[in-house]
Amino acid sequence: MSVASTREPLLPPRSPKEDWLVQLARLQELLTACPSDLLSRCELAALLETMDMYEEALVHWKVVIDLDANHLIAREGLVRCHQKTGHHFTTRTMRRSV
Predict the structure, then answer these.
(1) What pLDDT digit, counting tens, does each position of 44-94 carry?
(2) pLDDT per residue over 9-58, tens digit each?
């Protein structure tokens, strides 16, 4: 069973770098309070991808998949990050760690 946030998603940044940093700090703060907040974790991973921080985004996509193995958005993000980083991608990467 996964835990999802009940809050509304954050709006896209108005001006790139400064707003991204504010958004990044807010999402990290939310995840500190509730690490299983899938919405915030997905937003953080997507924001990190926007900032070309694919390695960091990959970590968050993997956490989402660990919490919800059927999360389609996280699976798509994982594939994108693997393509950008050049890491070898296998189905084992998407399986829940035991």
Answers:
(1) 999 999 999 999 999 999 999 999 999 999 999 999 999 999 876 555 545
(2) 555 555 566 688 899 999 999 999 999 999 999 999 999 999 999 999 99
Residues in the chain, overall count: 98
Residue 2: Cβ within 10 Å count: 11
Separation CA 42–CA 61 (nearest Å) = 7
Q: Please give the angle made by the CA atoms of 36, 38 and 44, to the nearest 5 degrees.
A: 105
Domains and CATH numbers, the chain: 16-94 (1.25.40.10)
CA–CA dist 47, 70 (Å, integer): 21
Give the residue from 76, 72, 70, 32 showing the smallest Cα distance to 57: 76
b/e code 22-49 from CB counts within 10 Å (16+ = b): ebbeebeebbeeeebbbbbbbbbbbbbb
Q: pTM for the whole thing?
A: 0.72
